[in-house]
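If you are new to this repository, start here. Below is one unmodified record pulled from the training split, so you can see the exact layout before writing a loader.
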Amino acid sequence: LLKSLKYKGNYEIGVLLGSWYGHHLKNKIQADIILPVPIHQDKLKKRGYNQSTAIAEGIQASLDIPVDQSSVVRKKKTSTQTKRHKVERWSAMKGVFEVVNPAELSGKEVLIVDDVITTGATIFSLCETINEHGPESIKVVSIATGK
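And here is the target side for that same chain:
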């Protein structure tokens, strides 16, 4: 399902998975905003959408928490992480994200949504960047973990 979402243009699979996941998260998680892991503009143009946003929109439908797609951007383009060794993944993610709207994060409970967490390098980098702007808390959810 995730390969179909990510590589075959099936956005609706992400929304469906997110909705299902959000239903299971209901009454178990508190957040003020949902933040899908940003992808670089070049990848967004090529794919046509952010797969984490699709999942976040499904979660939003179940939890009625707004999705924030504008407060954080991916400023550095990185090649796919799937072919990198663990150490290379962590090195590649340094300084990748930038907070462009810090007021939206300050004092908020932020729920980050990713499709797959493998080594945690992307999530760690994003959390580290967001944490500099004073959120109340940062929580992370993903549909899957990889190897």
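Two things worth knowing about this chain: The helical segments are 2-7, 11-25, 41-47, 51-63, 86-92, 121-131. The longest strand covers residues 109-117.
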